[in-house]
Amino acid sequence: MEGQPHHLLRLVLSCRKITAQVTSARTESIVAMASSSENEFIAEYRAKLHRFPRSVNFWDAKTASRVGEKLGIRLREIGVADVEIDLHEELSRPVHLRRMVMPLFHSVRRVGVSVSGADKLDS
After folding, report:
1. pTM of the entire structure?
2. What is the pLDDT of residue 3?
3. What is the separation of C-alpha 95 from the centre of its chain, rounded to a whole number of angstroms?
């Protein structure tokens, strides 16, 4: 159990929303979660919903950054200082999605939570 991470950051992406959840590696229960479907993002979502021409995605890198900031604050509140991403899963995403989620990892790091593995995605 020495080499396994204590907390794993997982992303759930769809064309309508982005959800970031941190799970405990031992119990696989969700410790903290943030999503673009929360009340703070509803006005922006509705504006994009009724825009013409319609967009394929209803979230962008800016939304991902704000979700990462909210997640980082929640992690700090409960005392989590380090999370790890599944590098294989993140590298299997298409490049355009990888570019859009990188600000999420940077925002979590800016709040003060270390994100192991995110530096390997930049290269």
Report:
1. 0.87
2. 52
3. 16
